[in-house]
Amino acid sequence: MSAIPVADDILGPEVSVLSLAEVSTELGLSENKVRQLLRDGQLIAIRRKGDLLVPADFLTGATPVKGLTGLLTVLGDAGFTRTEMLRWLYTEDESLPGVTPINALRTNHGTEVKRRAQAMAF
What we know:
By secondary structure, the protein is of the alpha+beta class. Helices cover 43% and strands 12% of the residues. The protein contains six helices and five strands. The longest helix has 11 residues, at 110-120.
């Protein structure tokens, strides 16, 4: 089984994170399925004090935030590392509804966020 790629822990203390067990419960999946989502690039994890953690902002109810998986694919195709993806998702941009790309995604502005991500690839 391949190792789970992780991003550097660049998240501030104000960003809520969930353990894989908590993500598993939220999504109604086994921890192994959550690990597979991480390996497949559908979610991003950090390692803090030896534990794998996922930003709580990446989930909405029983699903990942709408558009997150596609956005991570676009950023990956543009050559972003997982750490760079995480940093970009949490960087404030006053011109975005929701102020950060992850908040814009959470408030149904995924098209604008994805458009910006695609523009960065060129």
